[in-house]
Design brief:
DNA Polymerase III, Chain A, domain 2, alpha+beta, eight-stranded antiparallel β-sheet, about 350 residues, seven-stranded antiparallel β-sheet
Length: about 350
């Protein structure tokens, strides 16, 4: 193999593939007339990224991912030439040379399942970023570490929950499709971060994939059976509060400084205002009043400040509507004027001290 590629483009492709793959996994580089392909995989995962390149000699090699990633990151050059030299892959610059050992050819990752629909990359990335943030990072129940993707007709719905909160996003599909899978949240987040342009959604027995010009990620799926928005009741709303999300978030950050270790603060709803309050035995107490549009009766739910901030961050720059239910039922947050991605965020209240 002998190929010349833009150093920064190759570095981006190699880094993206490495982040998606398990540690100590090798990368396969394939050069042909179409350019350079960076690929890798495991039994339940396949990734592939394209990189523009000038191919002098077709070929394929496998090399350790970590040293290749680190070497490309620190190169101060526009172009890098990759040449096989015996049992090494040499990275050549005008004034330097780096050589990596060749690895045995890795097992070929299974082909991605068939494409079932398409979605706009920017909207998809925004929805995944918000929804995946509510998935549990580590949980004995894999159900809560994934994002459920459901396509019906021309709407894609994404759902995730860590049992204390749930986010549901809906966005339009570019073509009608049918889909219902639960995908590991961390993997989906990284894949969506890389996706550009028109993003293809792929599905088959036990597998899911996303593709875009120059990239592909396919993975095994989790059991999606019980993660559902219908499991959370939202029909008992007796108070709605509408106000700028950024103003409420700023107040939560200030008042939350005075909350106890659990960082629980109270949102007291009054006439045309909300009052945020918290107290901490060793540092004192805080309160702040914000103007708001209020409909319904007075109420005083309490929330964990960091969860409330996470929810409000999803509505940055917008006016947010808090639909408050009595007792320990979920509070429902929505944008007053939804955009292309229609987001619903369910936040469980906490017992105040």
């Amino acid at each position: 193999m002998d190929v010349t590629a833009p150093a920064h483009r190759l570095s981006a492709a190699v880094s993206a593939a490495s982040r998606l793959l398990p540690a100590r996994t090798g990368l396969r580089l394939h050069a042909d007339a179409a350019g350079l392909t960076v690929a890798g995989g495991a039994a339940d995962l396949a990734v592939r990224f394209g990189c523009p390149a000038t191919t002098h000699t077709d070929g394929s090699v496998a090399v350790p991912a970590a040293p290749l990633v680190e070497t490309l990151k620190v190169l101060d050059a526009e172009q890098v030439r990759l040449v096989v030299e015996g049992t090494r892959l040499a990275l050549r610059l005008d004034n330097a040379r780096f050589a990596l050992p060749l690895l045995p050819a890795p097992d070929v990752a299974p082909d991605p399942p068939a494409q079932v629909s398409e979605v706009a990359g920017e909207a998809f990335a925004a929805a995944v970023r918000i929804v995946a943030g509510t998935a549990a990072k580590d949980d004995p129940l894999p159900l809560f570490t994934g994002v459920r993707l459901q396509a019906a007709g021309d709407v894609l719905t994404l759902t995730a929950s860590d049992r204390y909160r749930m986010a549901v996003a809906r966005l339009p599909l570019r073509s009608p499709g049918s889909l219902d899978v639960l995908v590991p949240a961390a993997l989906l987040t990284e894949a969506a971060r890389q996706a550009r342009g028109r993003v293809g959604l792929h599905a088959g027995p036990g597998r899911f994939g996303v593709s875009w010009p120059g990239g592909l990620v396919a993975t095994a799926v989790l059991d999606a059976g019980f993660l559902s928005e219908e499991s959370i009741g939202s029909g008992a709303v007796d108070t709605t509060v509408t106000l700028p999300a950024d103003a409420l978030a700023a107040a939560v950050r200030r008042v939350g400084v005075y909350a106890e270790d659990r960082r629980v603060l109270t949102v007291e709803v009054g006439d045309a205002q909300v009052r945020l309050a918290s107290a901490r035995q060793d540092t004192g107490e805080a309160e702040e009043v914000l103007k708001a549009d209020v409909e319904g009766g007075r109420t005083s739910p309490s929330f964990q400040a960091r969860y409330l901030l996470d929810a409000l961050a999803a509505f940055a720059g917008e006016r947010v509507v808090l639909s408050i239910q009595p007792g320990m039922r979920a509070c429902v947050l929505r944008a007053a004027e939804p955009g292309e991605v229609a987001l619903t965020y369910y936040l469980m209240p906490m017992l105040s001290r």
